[in-house]
Each structure stands twice: as structure tokens, then as C-alpha cells.
Amino acid sequence: MSASKAVQTFGKKKTATAVAHAREGKGLIRINGSPINLLKPEMLRFKVYEAVLVAGEDSFAGIDVRVRVKGGGHTSQVYAIRQAIAKAIVAYYAKYVDAYSAIELKKKLVSRMEPKKFGGAGARARRQKSYVYLSTWSYAFLLTSVCSYR
């Protein structure tokens, strides 16, 4: 019995979840059963192509990728699809081709989360500053003292 070479990965963005199945084949990419070139909206289609173009079309030559996506809106679904395809290619290369090419693809494709820094809730979030410390009494006093010099 010969088992086919296949991996399954997922990508998430907000509430959209995309599950990608990569297996050996002819280089076809299907999203919810339809080819990648029929993905709507048309402007966001290039975000999905990004993974293919960055990795190089030769990386996808012997691999078929089938993606199922649900949840979220159009934009979130497209970003989830892009992430799932990228992770599927990296996982396929790591499991069935060689580790070095998988590491090289991972450097190109897979995005990493920025680490949290001190002084805020997240990587970039900080507490807002307010430089207005004048109360209404001190503001009125300031106005009267400026006016009294005239």
C-alpha cells in the first residue's frame, strides 16, 4: 500500500479560518473547490498570489493545494488563505523534500508575531499621553495675570 504524500495546515485572521491540504500533484491551487484565479474580490486576489510569487512557481510545481475557508469577512478570509497556503508549502517541504529548502521557504513566506515590549499592552500599544494639566481655576488665573500686565 503506497500512502500519498500529504500535509494539512491552517491559517487564521480574526474569525476566518482556512484549512489547506497539500499533496503531490500537478501544481493546482483550489479555494473552496474553485481555481485560485476565480477568487473574489479581484483586488485581494493578489494577496493570495503573494505566497505563490514569493516562494516561486517552481516550488508549487509538484504540489496540489486545496483550501477550505469559512468565517470572517472577505479580507480576513483572503489573509487566512494566504497564511494557510504558505504554511502548507513549508510543512510539505519539511516533511517530504528536505529541511534546508523548508527553512529557506519559511524565511520567505511565514510571518511571525512581533514580541510584546514593556510599557504597554502589546507590541506597539502604549498608554496615551495628555499634557493638559491646567484646571479651570488655574487657567482663569493665568488669563487674568496675562491680562493684568497690559
Description of the structure:
The protein starts with 5 loop residues before the first strand and ends with a helix. It has four helices and five strands. The longest helix is centred in the middle third of the chain and has 24 residues, at 74-97. The protein has a domain at 6-109: 2-Layer Sandwich (Ribosomal Protein S5, domain 2), CATH 3.30.230. The protein is 39% helix and 20% strand. The protein is an alpha+beta fold and 150 residues long. Helix 1 runs parallel beside helix 2 (74-97) and helix 2 runs antiparallel to helix 3. This is Ribosomal protein S9.
CATH topology tier name of the domain at 6-109: Ribosomal Protein S5, domain 2
The low-pLDDT segments are none
State the separation between the terminal residues, measured CA to CA.
Answer: 100 Å
Structural class: alpha+beta
Shape: elongated
Instruction: Tell me the radius of gyration.
Output: 26 Å
The mean pLDDT is 87
Strand fraction equals: 15-25%
Indicate the topology:
Blueprint: E1 6-13, E2 16-24, E3 29-31, E4 34-35, H1 45-55, E5 63-70, H2 74-97, H3 99-109, H4 136-148
Parallel strand pairs: 3-5
Antiparallel strand pairs: 1-2, 2-5, 3-4
Helix pairs in contact: 1-2, 2-3
Keywords: Ribonucleoprotein, Ribosomal protein
Protein name: Ribosomal protein S9
